[in-house]
Amino acid sequence: MSAWHARMAAGCALVLALAACTSDDKPDASGNKRPVEAGDTYVALGDSYTSAPGVGAPTGPAGCLQTDGNYPHLLAAALDLELTDASCGGAKTENMTTRQQAGGDSVRPQLDAVTKTTDLVTLSIGANNGEVYGSLVITCAQLAVGNPTGAPCSDLAQQNPDVLPKIFDEVGASIVEIVGEILERAPKARVVVVGYPQIIPATGTCPELPLGAGDYPFGRGVIEQFVEAQRDAAAEAGAEYVDVWTATEGHDICGEEPWIAGVRPTRNATAYHPYAEEQQAVADLVEETVSGPGA
């Protein structure tokens, strides 16, 4: 063998060795797409639309308002998964990496539940950023008392038109970062971002959602912007996305068969939060997604 051939052989050997080392050290992207199997470990991250207050028996820290009727518990039971439910009512994107004060409980960052052995992570977060959801269903309803036929909440938002778009952008960027952090901690986890449902009707009004008549389109648009931020962030981060918005059409607070409770829930739930039907629908959607190979 000539000296040139020897150098080439040595170089090829070095490249192959480096490739082998790299293959061992990098997360196996294909591992993120395999179907979820019985016995897999599952971590649920999210806010009250994941914890589902009032829907079932309480679980987890009292301040987080988790119940065993929420979609993580339903999904875990259906697929025989080992569930760690880290969801917490009132959670913001920041509480994935920082502690949350929930009632009398100081709750650990939700991402602490994700480890290298985690096989599945669901994430639904964002609407509490900037206190937006609470302001929408509480403050806007209070404003409507003095202006029931107008759009007092929309009028107030228009006084500072840059605030909401900034929050939507921040939510999207945060979800991209959170998915990246999940995969750093659990390189072979399958990550699914779960969107919010339709909460406010496309047309009409109802006593169960006492907004000013002109604020219904505004409120619906706010929730839809959060959903778009979740969907777009999932695509950017390479996570899967479960579209709850489409599946809940006609089941908003004012629907004939509402899956979201109004100001006075008619069955087990908390005001302005999901009923059991919505949580079952979400569990079914996620089950359908993770039972097959990822896209």
Notable traits:
295 residues; alpha/beta; Rossmann fold; five-stranded parallel beta sheet; two-stranded antiparallel ribbon; 41% helix; disordered N terminus
Give a quick summary of the entry:
This protein is α/β, with parallel strands linked by helices and 295 residues long.
Secondary structure topology:
Elements: H1 3-25, E1 41-46, H2 48-51, E2 58-59, E3 66-67, H3 71-79, E4 82-85, E5 100-102, E6 105-107, E7 120-124, H4 132-146, H5 152-158, H6 163-185, E8 190-194, H7 216-237, E9 240-242, H8 244-247, H9 276-290
Parallel strand pairs: 1-4, 1-7, 7-8, 8-9
Antiparallel strand pairs: 2-3, 5-6
Helix pairs in contact: 3-9, 6-7
User: Could you name the CATH class?
Assistant: Alpha Beta
Count every helix, treating DSSP H or I runs of 4 or more residues as helices: 9
- Biggest sheet strand line-up: 4-1-7-8-9
Helix content: 40-55%
How many whole angstroms does the radius of gyration measure? Answer: 22 Å
Mean pLDDT: 91
What would you call the shape? globular
Plain-language structure description:
The chain has a single domain (37-290), classed as SGNH hydrolase (Rossmann fold). It is built from nine helices and nine strands. The model is unreliable at 1-31 (pLDDT under 50). The chain has helices at 3-25, 48-51, 71-79, 132-146, 152-158, 163-185, 216-237, 244-247, 276-290, and strands spanning 41-46, 58-59, 66-67, 82-85, 100-102, 105-107, 120-124, 190-194, 240-242. The protein has a five-stranded parallel sheet with strand order 4-1-7-8-9, sandwiched between helices. The longest helix is centred in the first third of the chain and has 23 residues, at 3-25. With 295 residues, the protein is an alpha/beta fold. It is globular. Helices cover 41% and strands 11% of the residues. Helix 6 packs parallel to helix 7 (216-237).
